[in-house]
Amino acid sequence: MRSTANPVIGKLEERGLRITGPRREVLAAILDTPHGFSADTISDRLPGVGRATVYRTIKLLLQVGVLCKVALQDGAPRYSLDPVGHHHHLVCVRCGTISDFRQCNLDDLEPRLEAALGGQLLGHRLEVYSLCGECREQGFSEPERRPFYHQSSAHSGHEH
C-alpha cells in the first residue's frame, strides 16, 4: 500500500524502501526543521533512535533526492529539504540557516565556460554565504575568517 499523505514517504515507497518506525521519526524531525540542520541536531532530538539510523536515513534521503547537502564555512555538512526544481542555497555563516533561491543568471556564462573548457557542462551548484537577517538584527557582524569562499568586491575594495 502506497502512502500519499507524505510525498517524502511516497518517494521512498516508490523505490521499494521500507518505512520503519525509526525512519518515520527521523523524517518527522527533518520535516519539522525546514531551514537546515546537522545530523547531530536530528540525532539529539531523537534519543530513542540510534545515531547510526539517523545517519543512514539522511544518507538514504540524499540518494533519493529528498535532501540537499551543503558545506558550512568550517566544512561541516548541513542538510535541507530539497524543493522540486533547480535551486541554490543562501547559507548563514553564523547560525547555519539555509534558504533556497531560484534566481540564477548563469545562462550567459555557460556557453563561454563550455568554449573555454572544450567540453560540455552538465550542471552547476551555487551556494552564497552571508549573515541572515536574524543574525544581523541580533548585532552580529561578518566573521573575521572566511576560509573557503570568496569575499565580494563590494566589501574588499578589489575589482574583478
Description:
The protein is an alpha+beta fold. The N and C termini lie far apart (57 Å). It is globular, with a radius of gyration of 19 Å. Mean pLDDT is 80; it is low at 151-160. The protein has seven helices and five strands; from the N terminus they run H-H-H-H-E-E-E-E-H-E-H-H. The strands form two sheets. A three-stranded mixed beta sheet has the order 4-3-5, with no helix packed on it. The protein has a two-stranded antiparallel ribbon with strand order 1-2. Helix 2 (21-31) packs across helix 4 and helix 3 packs across helix 4.
Summarize the structure.
This protein is α+β, with helices and mostly antiparallel strands and 160 residues long. The protein has helices at 7-14, 21-31, 39-45, 51-63, 109-117, 133-137, 153-156, and strands spanning 67-71, 77-81, 88-92, 98-101, 127-130.
- Which regions are unreliable across 5 or more consecutive residues at pLDDT < 50? 151-160
Mean pLDDT: 80
- What is the H/E order? HHHHEEEEHEHH
Give the N-to-C terminal Cα separation.
Answer: 57 Å
The main sheet orders its strands as 4-3-5
The largest sheet is: 3 strands, mixed
Helix content: 25-40%
- Principal-axis shape equals globular
